[in-house]
């Protein structure tokens, strides 16, 4: 039996590779700020609670987008489909080009969602939790919209620093 290394021996590159073994879905988190869509892509989305309805996204402390985005009253969270790899890269690119050519819906409250998402949530900030080099953003869900399961498609999956897709099992 091998011995696991202690925390003092953790190499950030090796740790990132280890974290990458676990596949995650990818979402767009966006809102209208000063009459413009502002958003980012996140691969750390998870459901948290049904009562109250909560979801979470982890945002890097180095994010230049989150300080502006967190000013919003409402946020849109869009679960990206497996054909959204280029959209995800665009949402991670230059701020002024993130929504170029992407069809979005803006709610009266200012939540921005991508029209072609698998599931779209309208949320508000519930709480932020300090978590090392990230902030865990807890969002309270106020509305959800999704297509019929047969029409929904497959989610975009981030795995080992690349995009993939799920295959439906028989």
Spans of at least 5 consecutive residues with low confidence: none
Strand content: 35-45%
Q: From the coordinates shown, what is the CATH architecture?
A: Roll
Cα-atom Rg, whole angstroms? 17 Å
Averaged pLDDT, please?
86
Portion of residues in helices?
10-25%
Shape descriptor reads globular
The ordered string of helix (H) and strand (E) elements is HEEEEEHEHEEEEEE
Write down the CATH class. Answer: Mainly Beta
Structural class: mainly beta
Could you please describe the fold and organization of this structure?
InterPro entries: Flavin_Rdtase-like_dom, NADH-dep_flavin_reductase, Split_barrel_FMN-bd. Keywords: Oxidoreductase. Belongs to the non-flavoprotein flavin reductase family. The structure is a single chain. The protein contains three helices and twelve strands. With 170 residues, the chain is mainly beta. It has a single domain (24-147), classed as Pnp Oxidase, Chain A, CATH 2.30.110.10. The protein has helices spanning 12-19, 66-69, 85-91, and strands at residues 24-25, 27-33, 36-42, 46-50, 53-60, 75-79, 104-106, 112-114, 119-131, 134-146, 156-159, 162-165. It starts with 11 loop residues before the first helix and ends in a 5-residue tail after the last strand. The protein is 11% helix and 44% strand.
């Amino acid at each position: 039996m091998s011995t696991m290394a202690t925390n003092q021996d953790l190499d950030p590159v090796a740790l990132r590779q280890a974290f990458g073994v676990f596949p995650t879905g990818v979402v767009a988190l966006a809102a209208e700020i000063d009459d413009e869509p502002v958003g980012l892509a996140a691969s750390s989305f998870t459901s948290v609670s049904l009562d109250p309805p909560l979801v979470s996204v982890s945002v890097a402390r180095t994010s230049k987008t989150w300080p502006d985005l967190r000013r919003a009253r409402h946020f849109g969270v869009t679960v990206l489909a497996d054909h959204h790899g280029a959209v995800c890269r665009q949402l991670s690119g230059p701020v002024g080009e993130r929504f170029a050519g992407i069809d979005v819906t803006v709610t009266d409250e200012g939540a921005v969602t991508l029209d072609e998402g698998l599931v779209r949530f309208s949320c508000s900030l519930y709480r932020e939790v300090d978590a090392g080099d990230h902030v865990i953003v807890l969002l309270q869900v106020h509305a959800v919209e999704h297509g019929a399961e047969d029409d929904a498609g497959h989610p975009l999956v981030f795995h080992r620093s690349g995009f993939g897709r799920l295959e439906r099992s028989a």
